[in-house]
Amino acid sequence: MRFMLLFSRQGKLRLQKWYLATADRDKKKMVRELMQVVLARKPKMCSFLEWRDLKVVYKRYASLYFCCAIEGQDNELITLELIHRYVELLDKYFGSVCELDIIFNFEKAYFILDEFVMGGEIQDTSKKSVLKAIEQADLLQEVRHPQTHLWSPQNTPMETP
Amino acid sequence: MGSSEMCRDLAGEVEKLLKTSNSYLRKKAALCAVHVIRKVPELMEMFLPATKNLLNEKNHGVLHTSVVLLTEMCERSPDMLAHFRKLVPQLVRILKNLIMSGYSPEHDVSGISDPFLQVRILRLLRILGRNDDDSSEAMNDILAQVATNTETSKNVGNAILYETVLTIMDIKSESGLRVLAINILGRFLLNNDKNIRYVALTSLLKTVQTDHNAVQRHRSTIVDCLKDLDVSIKRRAMELSFALVNGNNVRGMMKELLYFLDSCEPEFKADCASGIFLAAEKYAPSKRWHIDTIMRVLTTAGSYVRDDAVPNLIQLITNSVEMHAYTVQRLYKAILGDYSQQPLVQVASWCIGEYGDLLVSGQCEEEEPIQVTEDEVLDILESVLISNMSASVTRGYALTAIMKLSTRFTCTVNRIKKVVSIYGSSIDVELQQRAVEYNALFKKYDHMRPALLERMPVMEKVTTNGPTEIVQTNGETEPAVLETKPPPSGLQPASQNYLQILEINGFHAVLFSTGIPSITAYNKNGLKIDFTFERSNTNPSVTVITIQASNSTELDMTDFVFQAAVPKTFQLQLLSPSSSVIPAFNSGTITQVIKVLNPQKQQLRMRIKLTYNHKGSAMQDLAEVNNFPPQSWQ
């Protein structure tokens, strides 16, 4: 995988993870272009498109578009599964995840992604172990900063701003 | 993501970590190793010893990352590939266990255990089995098993099947397995899910070269996909359809493709039109069908046809001699209604110019001849000239056609003369020049008119495409000689230029000539140097000059050195000479090749310096060469 983007239907970028070092300017350009193309797609169209020399796999969950750019020889269908697995992980962690969870806890979303995918390839195919790793990281955080942690997903209900 | 220096430094650490007992660390180490190898491929051997036990892992995470590592190594190095081939049986066993084993909740996705790992293993098997019979044989069974046992109701199952199909196609599988794979793809095509259909079409496109017959069986489904609403699917289906056209199905396929051309989005029309032309050229069952198809394309998607298609079409029409009357009649009818589609109008005006007499005499055999008078024909050509929609090139075609008709028509010559003289003062420089020249033809060279404007001969197919020639506007025309047509004898040189203008206008394509006259650049003291010229087909600014030096005295000239200098805007490249001795009595020559780059197309001039030994004394001479023929540098 080259990169993964999460953006809302209004065109706001929520998450971006790049697996190949690219200049900032190029990144911005690519994000803008790709968002335009994907948002222009109609709902019934197929989830794959060709863009520059990469294949782009995208899926829409509620108000968020999950977009992955893969290389020529990668399997598109399994990438769809990858996206779904990531969403499942987020769901398990946040408990019925919605876009707001990702907005307010974006660093956790990044942690989960980093535990699941590294260097563009899947690290662990077992949901349990990924979540276990995140839990352990959370515990470490709590131990080190017991006063400063403002919220943890288990005990603060989210208020809609 | 580390840089290559960081990778080099840390590679040792990573390698150690690969061997630790902590599986969490090991899987991360494996992916680090992948990244290191991507950045610095030479470090691959470092990780080789650690990979020995990788496949014995129980932990799926580590197993998965190890397979990724092995895949990366095998892709990068053929030695590694050979080394890891022996792992094929082990991989097959792991895959088998995955399929057969019971339900494992943590790795399960919709009833299939660890699809990610399955897909990865299949991919590694693909790389290992490519071009290797033994490995491929070892995999046959498991591939068949996966292909038949995987559930296809969910996307996951299809993902695995897709990877399996790709693997089967790539390795040296037996034919039964290949047929199985194509059938799976055929089933994908019927699936309701668009993604699956897209994936199927893409894979079929890849396999159509090798397994043509098997793919043909699914032709009707593919053609149905042309009617799908999704743009990506339509594009794939179109490409695949073109790949599937052959002598047997060409009529049916063309019908579908023409219908598609009618209804598809504008971005496809150009590609579709070109594809139809190519396919029609290769497989046309009859000349009439071919011309009908071309007509259909020109009328439906006329404005999207590529510019270079027009000369090709014209050539095609010239070559089908017996169809001239039919063609011109149909073209005439086509532009009567609508003359906005430029390529159509261009082809039509050219044909009417050439075969107008057939049109007026009503000689058509293939269909009902229509009654057309000369005035009606001129009416339509004049409206093309006047219309705002016509491009400058199209107007040029129309004017030339009108001129040609002056010899073919009998009662409307005066009208033609009037039209031609009006355009003598047109704002468009191209039109003006043509009109002026044609006017001159009427006034001063009227006796030559019939010979000049006679019918074009059948053209031979030119393999190299020349760019469209723009006639010089200062009156100095390019005497570009056509390869196939020798200039008719008995014509004076001045009129040859006109003949060639008309031919250039007619073809709108230049066939690069090989007939540039050679010159004698230097002739003194018994030393004669001739230049022969060749223009490069790939780079129009390059002229290749071959010099031949000969010696007519009774003693040899030795240590002959030829040097040349050109003005600043040129570049010169001198290749080595054949020898440095010119034998006496013209019994031999020295040849040397000079390449001149003339990007600004300026008049070629050269100063040459010759040094040689003759009759015991050293001779030296400087000379200027100014008599280069225009074709060598224009």
TrEMBL record, chain A:
Origin superkingdom: Eukaryota
Signal peptide extent: none
Organism the protein comes from: Strigops habroptila (Kakapo)
Assembly and oligomerization: Adaptor protein complex 1 (AP-1) is a heterotetramer composed of two large adaptins (gamma-type subunit AP1G1 and beta-type subunit AP1B1), a medium adaptin (mu-type subunit AP1M1 or AP1M2) and a small adaptin (sigma-type subunit AP1S1 or AP1S2 or AP1S3).
A biological process from GO: intracellular protein transport
UniProt-recorded name of the protein: AP complex subunit sigma
SUPFAM superfamilies: SNARE-like (SSF64356)
Gene name as annotated: LOC115602976
Keyword Protein transport among UniProt keywords: yes
Alphabetized Gene3D superfamilies for the sequence: 3.30.450.60
Keywords: Coated pit, Cytoplasmic vesicle, Golgi apparatus, Membrane, Protein transport, Transport
Automatic annotation (TrEMBL), chain B:
Matching PROSITE patterns: GAE
Taxonomic placement: Eukaryota, Metazoa, Chordata, Craniata, Vertebrata
Residues of the GAE domain: 514-629
Cellular component terms (Gene Ontology): AP-1 adaptor complex; clathrin-coated pit; perinuclear region of cytoplasm
SUPFAM superfamilies documented for this protein: ARM repeat, Clathrin adaptor appendage domain
Localization per Swiss-Prot or TrEMBL: Cytoplasm, Perinuclear region; Cytoplasmic vesicle, Clathrin-coated vesicle membrane; Golgi apparatus; Membrane, Coated pit
Protein name, entry field: AP-1 complex subunit gamma-1
UniProt family annotation: Belongs to the adaptor complexes large subunit family.
Primary localisation category: cytoplasm
UniProt KW keywords: Coated pit, Cytoplasm, Cytoplasmic vesicle, Golgi apparatus, Membrane, Protein transport, Transport
Tagged with keyword Amino-acid biosynthesis: no
Origin species: Strigops habroptila (Kakapo)
UniProt function note: Subunit of clathrin-associated adaptor protein complex 1 that plays a role in protein sorting in the late-Golgi/trans-Golgi network (TGN) and/or endosomes. The AP complexes mediate both the recruitment of clathrin to membranes and the recognition of sorting signals within the cytosolic tails of transmembrane cargo molecules.
GO biological process: intracellular protein transport; vesicle-mediated transport
Record membrane topology: Peripheral membrane protein
Pfam families in alphabetical order: Adaptin_N, Alpha_adaptinC2
Chain spans, region Disordered: 469-489
